[in-house]
Amino acid sequence: MDLYSYFRSSASYRVRIALALKGLDYDYLPVHLARSEQLAESYASVSASRLVPLLRDGDASITQSLAIIEYLDEVHPTPSLLPGTPLERARVRAMALDIACEIHPLNNLRVLRYLARDLKVGEDDKNRWYRHWVETGLAVVEAQLNRQPADFCHGATPTLADCVLVPQIFNARRFDCRLDHVPQVLRVFDRCMQLEAFERTRPENCPDAE
Fold first, then answer.
1. 3-state helix, strand, coil in the chain (%, to 5)
2. Which CATH number do you get for residue 193?
3. What is the structure's pLDDT at 42?
4. Do residues 184 and 142 lie in contact, with contact meaning Cβ atoms separated by under 8 Å?
5. pTM higher than 0.85, yes or no?
6. Are residues 72 and 111 in the same domain?
7. Domain limits at 53?
8. Out of 12, 33, 93, 95, which could bridge 53 as a Cys pair, Cβ 3.0 to 4.6 Å?
């Protein structure tokens, strides 16, 4: 398998975690987002969306991090990243989507660039925008965790939700977001980072890290 990735891409980090949890080997193909390499025609021939991550498995190409992780979970079911019952799976997917849909898109690099370049938003206001959506979004995840505390986001082993949560905390800390209001989130993050799969795939350990 090939993974098109960027070391600072939280969506790519999600997939790297999932691949590591499942012990799957892959070739790391860097796409430098800050240098706009994703906009090059050579990458457009690979990815219609011109985004990372993209997983190439044989002749198949899969985009969108959550779709990639669920694909991996179906093709390589052990260890499973989704729990056993429909209700439990719905809860895990909901927590993952609380981050992947309600926080991440509002703070994506292309959104921040649009705010700065096209709307002429200043650096301080842009960062305030970023922090607002991260801090309010993580408060929702905190409420979910408080309703059913566990070692990880759900249960005694990592799930799809943990793969999504951990990269978001890395981004939150990078942009100096307030996190004292989400102690359960931080507890789960610390538990995840005790595992090699989360530690080994962190951004600074990537081949393209700067």
1. 55, 10, 35
2. 1.20.1050.10
3. 87
4. yes
5. yes
6. no
7. 2-79
8. 12
